[in-house]
């Protein structure tokens, strides 16, 4: 059977184009996308097989049956508890209404007093002996026992009268509460007759069931829409990430391709700008020279230049002659150097004595 099921699943994988959507619909709580199923066909086949043994919430058939049975038992216990709780609260509300009104016929006053005492005694007995509802041990409060409290019950005659009259009063109280609920549910029915209100009140439970079913249906629809929106958001984000990655790749490739052309054009532009600045500097220099030098000053400068060049040429010739003489003197050796120094010293003394003689002669005259 298992091999046949797997074979059927494989055939379905090959034949049905909407299988992925069916799998996603069978497992709405599973965070799986259609791309995941496409990339993992074996996993998709496993989900198809599991869908035959599980429901949308992930429960198996046997577990679901046990859960339904437990829920039915729970609902039965809950209805029984609600029946008792509604009856107890209705009786307490009747007692509260009696305290609020403060004025009522003697027969009703006796009925309410007897009912209040019975409820109070029953509550005290339950507090002293909780064994009927729990496994707790009876507490010891002032040494009292449930039998001591039961002795405070009203007379049997009053209790019997109360039991006979209670259903009628309880029915009247519940009717008033139902009419109040009907007026709250449909305020426009407030002005209608009692008979029409009674007829509509008999259909109130059906209307409330329809509203409850509708609310549950809307809640399920909202849940499905939320899951669908979540799945679509994930798909949108994944596609958006792919688009961003593709855009980044295109930008990088485009930038790398045009970067060389851009650098070359930028270099050509800077070279042209540099040449333009140099030409502008030359033009400014020429303009400054034209504004500074006149034709007469230029001819004078030329003459000065020619004279300086001739003097420079004569100095260079004298320098060359002196260098030749110096080289010839250096060839004579150290003795000639001493004679040259002695000669220089004698010339300096002669010059000094001539100056002193000239000054002396000038002073004498």
From TrEMBL:
Keyword Heme: no
GO terms, molecular function: microtubule minus-end binding
One cellular component term from this protein's GO annotations in UniProt: HAUS complex
Keyword Coiled coil: yes
Keywords, ordered alphabetically: Coiled coil
Coiled coil start-end: 298-325
One of the GO BP terms on file: spindle assembly
Listed name of the protein: HAUS augmin-like complex, subunit 4
């Amino acid at each position: 059977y298992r091999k046949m099921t797997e074979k059927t699943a494989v055939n379905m994988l090959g034949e049905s184009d909407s299988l992925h959507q069916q799998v996603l619909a069978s497992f709405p709580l599973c965070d799986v996308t259609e791309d995941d199923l496409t990339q993992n066909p074996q996993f998709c086949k496993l989900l198809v097989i599991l869908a035959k043994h599980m429901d949308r919430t992930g429960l198996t058939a046997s577990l679901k049956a046990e859960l339904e049975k437990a829920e039915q038992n729970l609902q039965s216990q809950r209805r029984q508890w609600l029946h008792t709780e509604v009856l107890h609260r209705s009786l307490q509300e009747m007692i509260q209404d009696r305290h609020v009104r403060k004025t009522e016929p003697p027969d009703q006053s006796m009925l309410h007093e007897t009912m209040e005492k019975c409820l109070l005694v029953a509550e005290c007995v339950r507090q002293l002996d909780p064994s009927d509802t729990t496994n707790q041990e009876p507490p010891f409060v002032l040494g009292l026992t449930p039998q001591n409290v039961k002795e405070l019950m009203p007379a049997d005659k009053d209790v019997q009268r109360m039991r006979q009259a209670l259903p009628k009063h309880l029915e009247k109280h519940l009717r008033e509460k139902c009419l109040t609920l009907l007026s709250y549910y449909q305020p426009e029915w407030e002005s209608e007759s009692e008979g029409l209100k009674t007829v509509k009140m008999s259909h109130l439970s059906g209307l409330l069931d329809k509203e409850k079913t509708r609310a549950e249906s809307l809640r399920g629809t909202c849940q499905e829409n939320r899951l669908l929106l979540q799945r679509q958001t994930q798909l949108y984000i994944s596609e958006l990430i792919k688009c961003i990655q593709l855009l980044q790749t295109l930008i990088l490739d485009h930038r790398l391709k045009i970067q060389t052309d851009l650098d070359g054009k930028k270099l050509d532009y800077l070279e042209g700008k540099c040449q333009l600045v140099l030409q502008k500097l030359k033009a400014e220099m020429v303009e400054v020279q034209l504004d500074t030098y006149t034709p007469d000053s230029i001819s004078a400068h030329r003459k000065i230049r020619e004279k300086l060049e001739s003097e420079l040429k004569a100095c260079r010739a004298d320098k060359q002659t002196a260098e030749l003489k110096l080289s010839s003197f250096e060839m004579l050796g150290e003795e000639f150097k001493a004679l040259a120094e002695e000669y220089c010293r004698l010339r300096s003394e002669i010059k000094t004595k001539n100056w002193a003689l000239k000054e002396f002669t000038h002073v004498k005259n």
